[in-house]
Amino acid sequence: MSAPLACALEALLGAGEPAPPPPLDAAAQQALLDRFHPDHRTDHKRPLRVGANAGLLVDGELADCLEGRPRLPDGFVPGRPEATCDVLVLGGGGAGVCAALAARDAGADTLLASKLRIGDSNTIMAEGGMQAAIGDGDDPGRHFADALAGGHFANDRPLLRALVEAAPATAQWLGELGVRWDRDAAGRPRLRRGAATSRPRLLACADYTGLEIMRVLAAELEAAAIPTLAYHPVVELLTDGEGRVTGAVLIDLHD
Ligand SMILES: Cc1cc2nc3c(=O)[nH]c(=O)nc-3n(C[C@H](O)[C@H](O)[C@H](O)COP(=O)(O)OP(=O)(O)OC[C@H]3O[C@@H](n4cnc5c(N)ncnc54)[C@H](O)[C@@H]3O)c2cc1C
Fold this sequence. Notes:
35% of the residues lie in helices and 13% in strands. By secondary structure, the protein is of the alpha/beta class.
């Protein structure tokens, strides 16, 4: 660098590190948060008018969404559905497709509707792997304890229990359907360590685990000939007035 340029840069940047900002006491910190932090500013908040959280001060845009008018078309008559079924599954990710397959296996007349294409989901983005306590020295109880600690003991315990107890059979089921788990030299599913796990219990398919699971589930759904409605997001749930959901209003994104 030429000497004049170096001098000019030094003059611009100043010599050495800038002085750190002075420490703030609690009151000054609060004032700064109140002025700039979206969770603390009150100028764009308002209380919710309806629903279980009525009165809660929330972001205005969120309140507008929650209080939005239903998108039902003129002349809509909930008593005359366009389709009926025993089980309506909403969402075409891993959970929804598994639910549809289970409902079909139980003999239910099943319909699956999803916002976009079947498989457009978070499921296809999961890379790391799926945990199942199938390794030597491992069991669902240990999986439960690890996940509970990893979840800072805030987990929904019955849900967590269902998850860890079902995981080994689910992993086996997915393998039988055709999910190509990574394998060790002996041909057994290769288990890796995941965060906060005391045993290796992460089953993976290279770095596209969810995509591979969804590939197989979507093929299974198609083979089962379960009726599907792609590009049909649900916009309203219908109830029987006593809290039981009896149907849904879907929007056809094509028209
Ligand atoms: C980047 C990333 C990495 C991850 N990595 C891992 C991992 O390594 N291991 C792991 O265990 N988990 C991982 N997860 C979490 C895991 O992917 C999700 O917990 C799991 O896929 C959720 O499955 P799901 O079927 O419940 O939801 P989704 O897969 O999100 O499926 C929801 C479906 O519902 C549809 N839908 C949404 N709104 C509507 C509507 N109004 N009407 C109709 N349909 C609707 C969506 O289009 C979608 O098809 C990861 C998630 C992400 C995003």
